[in-house]
Amino acid sequence: MADQYNTNEEKILRDSHTKEIDLINRDPKQINEDVVKVDFEDVIAEPDGTHSMDGVWKASYTTFTVSKYWCYRILSAVFGIPVALLWGFCFACISFCHIWAVMPCIKSYLIETQCLSRIYALCIHTFCDPLFEALGKIFSSVRVALRKEV
Q1: Cα–Cα 20 to 30 A to 135, which of 44, 52, 101, 118?
Q2: pLDDT of residue 93
């Protein structure tokens, strides 16, 4: 029974690091929907009255599309894994700093400000409340009358 529990726990731990990825839809959250989706028509356009020869236009389209495709594939093959390693390291450092430095500092600050706010509230209630109550009683008998003279 204990072996089965350990095996299930080990499987859960292993599965969280070896998550199945979708090789078809590689942008499931569509974070690059409008940013880097660039086609030939988005970059090169000939207005009416200024057209190149049809063969040049077709060759330009093919050259642009194929060179963009292969350049991206070669760059991602050469630099993809090192850049992924760098970004993984960067986000790991950010997570580490947030978990071990930022949140404890914020929590400490909130604890300290809670203590200071109680002291501040005590001072206000002790000194300012009686003063303003007295001023309110003094000025409560003042009547203001507005007259419009023509």
Answers
A1: 118
A2: 97
